[in-house]
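Design a sequence for this backbone.
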């Protein structure tokens, strides 16, 4: 007598939705998300019509030109730098040292006696860094250049803090730090980039 074939039991799939939900939660918790890096910049307020008509004239000696090519070459004034020159050895990179010399050197940018607080007068650089890049410049090189420019201004703030208050910028209280920030703003002017694709 032939044995009757037994039917395979059906798999209970009622808990599959719960398992899928738990896996989704697991991957959401354990996955790391890339955080976009950016630059903190304070844009100037919108000028009045009268102010727009008055062109601000900067003396040539008060402007340090920084050009970044699409190949990654960086021109600071008449000096050429490569991306490797953005790496800091000690406190400065070669490029940030050049910018700091421009800001602090009396033979580079003009200095103006500025009252900071309680009649404390310091000679503050009137220098402005004009940054111009190519449309095809790599973003990470552009960010590194921006970072080194900001670093140079921060070190210059330290020098002014010591001159005004006898201690570095990080040790100042909020009022003193605000006074130094106002006296030494990060003056980086970004020119319209070159468009090499139109050639």
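Sequence:
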């Amino acid at each position: 007598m032939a044995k009757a074939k037994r039917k395979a039991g059906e798999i209970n799939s009622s808990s599959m939705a719960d398992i899928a939900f738990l896996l989704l939660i697991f991957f959401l918790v354990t996955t790391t998300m890339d955080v976009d890096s950016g630059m903190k910049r304070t844009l100037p307020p919108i000028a009045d019509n009268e102010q727009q008509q008055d062109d601000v004239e900067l003396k040539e000696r008060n402007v340090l030109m920084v050009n970044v090519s699409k190949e990654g070459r960086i021109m600071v004034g008449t000096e050429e730098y490569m991306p490797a020159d953005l790496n800091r050895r000690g406190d400065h990179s070669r490029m940030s040292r050049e910018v700091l010399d421009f800001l602090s050197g009396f033979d580079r940018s003009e200095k103006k006696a500025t009252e900071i607080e309680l009649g404390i007068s310091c000679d503050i650089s009137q220098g402005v860094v004009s940054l111009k890049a190519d449309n095809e410049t790599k973003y990470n090189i552009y960010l590194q250049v921006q970072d080194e420019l900001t670093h140079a201004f921060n070190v210059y703030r330290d020098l002014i803090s010591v001159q005004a208050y006898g201690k570095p910028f990080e040790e100042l209280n909020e009022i003193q730090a605000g006074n130094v920030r106002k006296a030494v703003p990060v003056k980086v002017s970004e020119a319209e980039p070159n468009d090499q694709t139109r050639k």
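The chain has five helices and seven strands.
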